[in-house]
Write a structure and sequence with these properties.
This protein is mainly α. The chain is 65% helix and 3% strand. The protein is globular, with a radius of gyration of 20 Å.
Length: 217
């Protein structure tokens, strides 16, 4: 299963880019499915209504548009597995609890980023040192070390969605859905595929596959 470090190093598709490609309705629906998947796993007397889930999904996108859906799924699964024991549920589940979960995951994410960047600096320093030992100093390695060091020293956080050249994994999963549907097309107005006895539309299939890949951290 995927880890937080995997999210950092693989740079999965940000929600903002999915929205740009597939539209606002699609990206919000994907977030709704993730929230619904969390809710159905809880044992509380009062849950969120469909309209509350839809509103929460819009709020999650507004706050974390620079994340990927993999980030959201991993945060929710961490909570399901009891990793965030400080977040208590009593008799209800609401949007405040959702944002407590995402905020806690954001803290873990920042710590993991610092670790990954620190390890990258250490590796570059090793290469730099070795280049001098081999009497082959390179300006490229020196500049890389300087750039990484500057990045670590600057602690400001910017909520800016990355713009990768491609969003291959998300696109692969959507293409995978299309291939499965074409092999056994349904006659309804909404395209669905049957997985393990469940009928999944495109957004449900995307969440299903992401949970397979990033269900545990």
């Amino acid at each position: 299963m995927g880890t937080i470090k995997d999210l950092i190093t693989t740079n999965p598709t940000p929600l903002a880019l999915i929205r740009k490609e597939k539209g606002d309705g699609f990206v919000v629906k994907v977030i709704e499915r993730a929230i619904d998947g969390l809710i159905v796993s809880l044992n509380v007397s009062k849950n969120m209504s469909e309209s509350q889930i839809a509103e929460a999904a819009q709020m999650v996108y507004s706050e974390y548009y620079y994340w990927s859906i993999q980030h959201v799924v991993m945060a929710f699964n961490n909570f399901k597995m009891g990793k965030y024991k400080e977040i208590e549920l009593f008799h209800s589940f609401d949007v405040t609890t959702i944002f407590k979960i995402l905020s806690r995951f954001d803290t873990d994410l920042k710590k993991a980023k610092e670790q990954v960047e620190s390890e990258a600096i250490q590796e570059k320093y090793k290469q730099w040192e070795q280049s001098y030992l081999d009497n082959k100093p390179t300006d490229e390695i020196i500049e890389q070390v300087k750039a990484l060091t500057t990045k670590i020293m600057d602690k400001k956080e910017y909520k800016k969605a990355p713009e990768p050249k491609e969003w291959s994994r998300t696109r692969e999963l959507l293409a995978e859905f299309d291939k499965l549907w074409r092999s056994e097309p349904n006659s309804g107005s909404v395209r669905v595929v049957t997985i393990e006895g469940r009928k999944l539309d495109q957004t449900e299939y995307l969440i299903y596959r992401i949970e397979q890949e990033y269900g545990e951290s």
